[in-house]
Structures are given as structure tokens and as C-alpha cells.
Amino acid sequence: IKRIATGIFYKPKKSVFGELKPNVEEILSPFLFEKDKRIAYVTGTSLYNRLGLTTQVPKSIKIASRNKRIAISNDIIKASPVKSYVDVSDKNFYLLELLDALKDFKKIPDLDKDSAIKILSGKIKKLNSTETKLLIECGLAYPPRAQAFLGAILENIQTESDLTSLKSSLNPFSKYDFSIDKKQLPTIENWNII
Predict the structure, then answer these.
(1) Are 12 and 21 in contact (CB under 8 A)?
(2) Which residues partner with 193 through β-bridges?
(3) HEC profile of the chain
(4) Which of the four pLDDT bands, split at 50, 70 and 90, describes residue 19?
(5) What is the pLDDT of residues 32-86, one digit of tens each?
(6) pLDDT averaged over every residue in the chain
(7) Residues 44, 137, 100, CA angle at the centre, nearest 5°?
(8) Alpha-carbon distance 159 to 166, whole Å?
(9) 80-122: per-residue pLDDT in tens?
(10) Which of 31, 35, 138, 29 is CA-nearest to residue 92?
(11) CA distances from 15 to 2, 4, 12, 46 (A)
């Protein structure tokens, strides 16, 4: 048995190539949950890689949590803390992942904007009306650029959700530069995206 961190151990598996380290998801699990309740989620480049938005694989993982700073540094994994905009739960963590991708859209390394908009739109379109409503509620805690991008995508996929709260939270004179055009997302003008 080998130790990863205080109170966290694993039994290494052997292969023809030597000892296998445990799966990253398994290592992170004790840090993402507290008493079986989710308190954090993986964000940053490792999330964007998992969503198919980038091919980059980061050396360090970012872990978002509202009330806890989660930093990990051992032989297998390095993780740094990021503050979440809202409390993290099992009901909303996957929505926060989508909102993080919208917020960081311009910073995602090696991003193909066309396919990224299609991927994010597809994931948002699959949400049911309750999830979409929660996505909008969580989105209101995010920076205006993420709110505008979310509004443009929701309007483009013609969701039945009420977008008034998103629209009214934005300054009508602000412009949000994502360097995308109307071919990529036809509704950008309604949300002051350039």
C-alpha cells in the first residue's frame, strides 16, 4: 500500500510496464466531496480538455470550491485552488463547468471557436428546463461576459427559458469581445458580443 496524502492510500497495480498509478479521478474524489456531499469540481484546462474544447493537458489541475481552498501536491497530482462563484453541489457542478468554459472562452489554449461553440451549444441544448433554469440562476453570479455568452447560446438554441434576468443584468452599453462572428453564433448582436 502506498500513501498519496494524509489518510489517503492506494494499492498499486502491476503491469508489464511496471507499477501503475491510480486514476486521477479516484485520487481527486476525497478532495471533491465532504461527508458524501460535493463541495468542489475540476475546472481550468483539464476540464476544457475533458469537454473536448482543447487538446492541451495541463501539468497542474485547478479545483473550484466556494468555501474551501483545495491544494494538492504529491508525486501523482498537482492541484491549485480557485474560488467558485456559487456554492458547489451535485445538482449544479456540471452547470458550473459549462459556465467556466463560457467565462474562459478566450483563454482556453488551442481552441477551435467553431467546434467549441457547437460543443457547448450541444451540451446546453441537452439540459432539461429545470437544469436550464438553474444554469441561468448560477450564470447570474458570473462575470457579465459569461452571462452575455450564455444568453446568446440559449437564444440561438431557442430554449423555452426566460432570458429576461440575464438580459437585464447586463449593461446595455457594454461590449463583450469574444472575437466570434455571426456565422459562428447568429445571436451575438442581441447580446453586445463582438
Answers:
(1) yes
(2) 176
(3) CEEEECCEEECCEEECCEEECCCHHHHHHHHHEECCEECEEEECHHHHHHCCCCCCCCCCEEEEECCCCCCEECCCCEEEEEECCCCCCCCCHHHHHHHHHHHCHHHCCCCCHHHHHHHHHHHHHCCCHHHHHHHHHHHCCCCHHHHHHHHHHHHHCCCCCCCHHHHHHCCCCCCECCCCCCCCCCCHHHHCEC
(4) confident
(5) 999 999 999 999 999 999 999 999 999 899 999 999 999 988 777 899 999 999 9
(6) 92
(7) 10
(8) 13
(9) 999 999 999 999 999 999 999 999 999 999 999 999 999 999 9
(10) 138
(11) 16, 20, 10, 26
CA atoms within 13 A on the CB side of 74: 15
- Gap between the Cα atoms of 33 and 42, Å rounded: 12
| 98, three cell numbers | 459549462
Per the listing, cell 472575437 goes with 179
Q: What is the pLDDT of residues 130-163, one digit of tens each?
A: 999 999 999 999 999 999 999 999 999 998 889 9
CB 92 within 8 A of CB 86: yes
Nearest in space to 74 (alpha carbons), one of 27, 39, 30: 27
18 CB-near residues (< 8 Å, 6+ apart)? none
